[in-house]
């Protein structure tokens, strides 16, 4: 029988003291927000989707108002009486909502697609804080961009309504509420898309679900009998958006702020469900 003798090599006293300490994984919300802000602003998709949001929100609104001004003399009496200059100038926001929703999806799904979400959760075991940081950073970006798009689209649109075409001013009843509401609408829809992405975790699937809620559901509801469709339609995000962007009251709908509050409820519910699933599922 042979025996092996292990020789202990002495470790210098200063070696252990100079060994770098590994992160403990206990980052606060402020550190996570800073990290998420770095991620958002360093990705090309963020810039492109924000540019598309600006172009759609402002450009399509300008086209809508310019077209209305050009054909005003040929419009029917009913068309002139029901014309809403504020809503017309904010028409582009109903298309910009798709771009801001895609950005909300990518904030979460892009990390799942590349697998970097594992490193994020390894560095920050408290997963709800990660989702909260993503929602806060994206929400701040969406709010600023949404309000800029809404106000610029309004002023550009009103400048194109020349001649006998009625124009709106921010001091008119309901106008400021509609313009501010347009930016808030984009914010809440973007957070809703982020919540959907947290649940689905796949870019294509989350975008499909978001588009389905926004565009497909209204088509389905329209095909229902009017007695049922009118009762259901006022709960749809797209219809809530139309009410928010309008100065004139809309039939079969909630008030603008009540509708926005309901939309906030949808976004919060999606985030809560998504956060619970993030905690329970593997990355």
Describe the structure.
The chain has 283 residues and is mostly helical. It has one domain (45-280). 73% of the residues lie in helices and 0% in strands. It is built from 13 helices and no strands. It has helices spanning 13-18, 29-41, 44-70, 77-81, 85-89, 93-114, 117-123, 127-160, 175-200, 203-222, 226-233, 237-245, 256-280. Helix 3 (44-70) runs antiparallel to helix 6. It is globular and about 65 Å long. The N and C termini lie far apart (50 Å). 35% of the residues are buried.
Query: What sequence of helices (H) and strands (E) makes up the elements?
Result: HHHHHHHHHHHHH
Major beta sheet summary: none
Number of domains: 1
Number of helices: 13
pLDDT under 50 segments (min length 5)?
1-9, 14-25
Secondary-structure class: mainly alpha
Tell me the strand percentage band: under 5%
Ends distance:
50 Å
Overall spatial form: globular
The average pLDDT score comes to 88
Number of strands: 0
Return Rg in Å.
Answer: 25 Å
Into which percent range does the helicity of residues fall? over 70%
């Amino acid at each position: 029988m042979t025996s092996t003798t292990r020789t202990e090599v002495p470790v210098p006293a200063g070696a252990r003291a100079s060994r770098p300490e590994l992160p403990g994984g206990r980052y606060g919300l402020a550190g996570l927000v800073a990290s998420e802000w770095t991620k958002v602003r360093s990705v090309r998709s963020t810039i492109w989707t924000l540019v598309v949001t600006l172009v759609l929100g402002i450009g399509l609104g300008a086209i809508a108002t310019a077209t209305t001004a050009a054909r005003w003399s040929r419009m029917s009496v009913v068309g002139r009486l029901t014309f809403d200059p504020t809503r017309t100038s904010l028409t582009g926001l109903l298309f910009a909502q798709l771009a801001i929703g895609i950005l909300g999806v990518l904030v979460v799904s892009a990390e799942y697609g590349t697998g970097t979400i594992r490193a994020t959760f390894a560095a920050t075991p408290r997963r709800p804080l990660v989702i909260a940081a993503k929602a806060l950073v994206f929400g701040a970006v969406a709010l600023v961009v949404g309000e800029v798009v809404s106000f610029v689209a309004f002023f550009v649109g009103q400048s194109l309504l020349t001649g006998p075409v009625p124009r709106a001013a921010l001091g008119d009843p309901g106008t400021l509420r509609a313009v501010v509401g347009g930016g808030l609408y984009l914010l809440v829809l973007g957070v809703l898309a982020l919540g959907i992405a947290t649940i689905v975790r796949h870019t294509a699937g989350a975008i499909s679900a978001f588009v389905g809620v926004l565009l497909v559901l209204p088509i389905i509801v329209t095909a229902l009998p009017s007695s049922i469709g009118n009762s259901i339609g006022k709960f749809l995000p797209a219809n809530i958006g139309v009410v928010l962007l309008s100065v004139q009251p809309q039939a079969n709908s909630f008030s603008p702020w009540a509708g926005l509050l309901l939309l906030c409820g949808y976004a919060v519910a999606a985030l809560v469900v998504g956060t619970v699933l993030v905690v329970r599922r593997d990355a």
